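Quarterly update, task 2.4: magnesium ion-bound model.
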Amino acid sequence: MHRGIATVSLSGRLADKLDAAAAAGFDGIELFDNDLVSSDLSPADVARRCAGLGLSIDLFQPVRDVEGVPPERFDAVLRRFAAKLDVMAGLGATTVLCCSTVAADAVDDVDLSAEQLARLGDLAHDAGVTIAFEALAWGRHVNRVGRSWDVVRRADHPAVTLAVDTFHMLSRGDDGSALEDVPGERIGFLQVADAPALDMDVLEWSRHFRCFPGQGTLDVTGVVAATLEAGYRGPLSLEVFSDVVREADPRVTARDAMRSLIFLEDQLAARLDGPAASVVAAAPAPAPRTDAAFVELSAADDDPSDLLTGLGFAVVGRHRTKHVTWWSQGDAHVVVNHEPVPTTLSGAATAIGVVAPPVASVAARAEALLWPALARTRGDGEARLPGLTAPSGVHVFVSAEPGAPDDWHADFEPVDGTPDASTWLGLDHVGVAVPADVLNEEVSFHRTLLGLEPGAVEEFMEPQGRLRSRALRPSSGDLRVVLNVADTAGPDRPRGITQLAFACTDLRAESVRLREAGVALMPVPDNYYVDVAARFGLDDATVADLRDHGLLYDRSGSGELLHLYTPVLGTGFYVELLERRGGYDGYGQADTHVRLAMQSRA
Ligand code: MG
């Protein structure tokens, strides 16, 4: 499809925005009027610049408050609109976005709105321009797409069409079915944006929290699919405003934006059939399931051998060509890299390994989605283990399933004398500290490449601020990643993998064993046990047992969680060990503030 982006979706001045859009490979732009008004460039300059960059000007936007205007004031609207048509002539733009009226004194009369739009349509028609009429979600009377379509239908004017904006529709609870009666040729423009689920005023939500498709929770794909099925074949154009994009480097945002459209088209390709399917491009297929394989620790600054030994890990393999050792504890695996690792991360945990076959397809998908590959050497006969760098800086290695040709295990020579007392079930989840301005892009990485679906944003109190958290997991597979944003981020804030959570079957026994092995564990305040007894109605013996073993406790339905933590270690991460019972599926979120407070003591 013809891919576009609104200039309002990029930071900087107009020339920077145009350069960034072109560099990311966009075909066209929506020119936001404010960007032009505040620019030294004349409309003709902008037109020349866009032409030189290979960008079409797909839309001029917005002209506000155009309908439902008290009749005695409508001449002013006509004058204002005519002036913008002159600007558009200079730009060579032929589609204009007109928005529904927000003014408190707007007239609630669909026929008046239609008549006024038709009069604007006459002016537009004479200028060779088409109006796309948009129902703002916070419009005074026209705030649902059903109503804006009613206005467009009644206007019955060839130069007056409907604008479809996924945010405005989905934020008001409409979905693709709201477009069932709209013929595709009556849809003049399609704007796409996603957003996280937030319970707040829709205008604030729109202005500050929109994000690119795939980063939020709205069914953007459903609305775009319905628009294409109706027969719309115009641009697919991103219109995202948020506090994040306003501050971010426009070149980074533009690439992230392009990636979101590639992903959206890929999702559409899977959803559509018939003529609409032929206009979207599928990316190479993702893995049908994604499982956690290992965590890589760098030994460059700090050898983790004592820690791993204390936790019960033992060396079970040595890499055939590199100074890398493989440690395991039951089905939990850690790879220790003694070679220099290029990293921007603050801790020693630098990578996660995942089993996500077919490896070649995932590597091709990463390339199609513009995710940067990690440059690595690969020895003769070694597994093809594509390495990627997530926006957080965390490296991700993709392995085939055990026993397959590109299985990561095959790169290691087994070591004799493996102990058999190990009982851990494996890596339960990893926590990744992400700067606030990277969160959406990081969600995109895990979702578009590995098929991890993001959960809701959760918030926790910290002694020095607030922690926001978003857990991701695949629809099939056991990989769980929790992204954490500390909103009090300073230069010393950790970045990267800060939490390694392993699962076991008997946490009480493990607690005893770890203490005997000299592993430092996070103390739990006595007040916690008073609270946990009150919250769950636990008997005295159970509470005493939890206290004696230093365990935290959570319950949800018939599921229970027991867990314990180490303090934050000198290596920049902490270890959690947990026991899930009865299908408990969360992360012990109710205990997070206790952990944050206790770990901050160091
Ligand atoms: Mg819009």
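Highlight for this quarter: The pocket of magnesium ion is lined by residues 134, 165, 191, 239 (CB under 6 Å).
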